Amino acid sequence: MGKRRVAGRVSILGLFAAIIILQNYVPMIGYLPIGPLSVTTIHITVIIAAVVLGPVDGAIVGGVWGIVDWIRALTVTSSALGNIVMVNPLISVLPRILIGLIAGWLFTKLAKDKTKLGLPLLVSGIVGALTNTVLVLGGIALFFGNGSAVLSAINFSALTPYILLVAATNGIPEAVAAAILVPLIATPLLKYTKIGQQRFA
Q1: pTM
Q2: Greater model confidence, 177 or 153
Q3: Can you tell me which residues the record assigns to a coiled coil (predicted)?
């Protein structure tokens, strides 16, 4: 890989990272607050990076989101529940890395013909979105479902039905949004940009 190609790839990664940071800190762009939890649109950026750049770069962009989310939780700029659960990097960072890794890998396996990208992009978008929902909410249930001395003020057993409700009411719209926006945005990037065309080289 030539130096110019590497520099171009690093620049694109930097652009995606900047978009992720913007979505995290500008109100109502990356997170839509719903009670103590939030509906997110940032996963769509990670999935687009993963399908255009590949699973490794997708994992890096997802990691940027996770680290920023983790920092927000530590600095009390997240949601009420986020400031409690997102301090655990296995909830805030790892699932976001896996979004990019899984979505990018899945697209690589499914997209053998660059003239037929619709279904691979749709499937990768849905699976990437569900990866985020299942792993984050699953992590909350796993690590905090039985409560702890530190979290004695919160009854996570009573919160479980709410978490399941969020999985249905938030997770499904997030998956639908990814199914629509990932093909819409990623298709021209894959077909008409050099960085996207390299996925099929």
Answers
A1: 0.88
A2: 177
A3: none
